[in-house]
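Technical note accompanying the year-one report. For the benefit of new consortium partners, we illustrate the data format agreed upon in the data management plan: each record pairs a sequence with a structure-token string. No post-processing was applied to the example shown here.
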Amino acid sequence: MGETAKKAILAVSFGTSHSDTRKVTIDAIEEDLKAAFEDCSLYRAWTSKMILARLEKRDGIHYDNVKEAMEHMLKDGITDVIVQPTHVMNGVENDLMKEDVLTYAGQFQSVTFGTPLLTTEEDNELVVKAIAEAFPVIEDKETALVLMGHGTEHYANAVYAALDYRFKDMGHENVIVGTVEGYPEISQVLKQLEKCGPQKVVIAPLMIVAGDHAKNDMAGDEPDSWKTIISQKGYEVQTVLKGLGEYESIRHIFVEHAKAAK
């Protein structure tokens, strides 16, 4: 008989340099994965080179990138790995992460991948329900909820428009999805706000962590922040600095994706 299997979950995140949001988002997702997979050791990898370098320089903290985490698990004698990304979608970061993992796959008995948050139509529906539950204010037709996603040049960016459509299809006409670096952008968000004509607008991040984009591009006081741009159109604006990872129902989706990979 071969050696006893040693199983692990590798939680892969983009990362954040803001420890306040990390504790309540990335750490919380990892804790939920740990609790759901008691027979697995938990390892962490972050994919943003910029964030990893910043943390090392500023705080003297080193987190593994994907290749380092794979090396780490090999050294520890791990035989079977479930890789669970905490990414929102199957974009560039997820593609690169898979490439890195697969260069090591032959050295393990098994390597399987869980999927990002928005992968299937069912995922979209679950995310709509989770957000509607977290923001009961959307029942008030005088209030619109604007969700700021990251956006990407990758074709997976289409998921944002699909999610926007899904909100409306499920009866939430006053929920609008936009992105900082993709389509729909702030100009499309403003067009939609004009259509639904609310008095008040709540803006929240459609990102796992409430980091730089949420604190600056979304809720900052600069002239080009979404808060400023939307306020200037005469709406009363409230910003919610809460990453998706803070919602238990969203974390549950990641856990289910890891279970499906198992």
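Partners are asked to follow this layout when depositing records. The domain at 7-117+247-261 is CATH 3.40.50.1400 (Rossmann fold).
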